Amino acid sequence: MGFIIGLLTFLLVLDCAMLILLVLIQLPKKDAGAGLAFGAGASDALFGAGSGNVLTKITKYATVAFFILAFVLAVIQRHRSTSSTTEFERRLSQPAAAPALPATTPVGGTAPSAPQVVSNAAAPAAVATNLLSVPAPANTNAPAK
Question: For the whole model, what pTM was predicted?
Fold first, then answer.
C-alpha cells in the first residue's frame, strides 16, 4: 500500500510541475484580461471561442489528471488511516518478555529444585535490606583516649 501511495504522490508532483510549466508557456488572449471577466469578451474566455491549440488541450488533460490523482490519494490515505493497527503498533502493545537470569548454583554444590525468579521491582528492596543488616566496620584509626 505504501508503494502505491508513493507512486501516486510522485505522479501528482510531476503533474503539478507540468501544469505550472504549461500555464506559464501559454500566451494570453488579447481580450481575455481580468478586467473583462464580466464583460462581453468573457464568454469567449470562459466557455472557449474555438477548439484551442495543443497547449490548452494538454492543460485540460493535466488538470483532470491532477484532480483524479488528488481524489484517489485522499481516498487511499483515509482508508489507510482508519484501518486496523499496523504491525509496528501491534508489537508495541504486546508486553515485553523479561530477560532470563543466569542459573547459579548454591555454595553447597547442589542445584535448586525449582528456578527462582527475581523481579526487577523487588531487587532494590532486597539490596537495601542487605545493606542495613551489614554491621558497620570498626574504626581502627580512632585516637586513643
Answer: 0.47
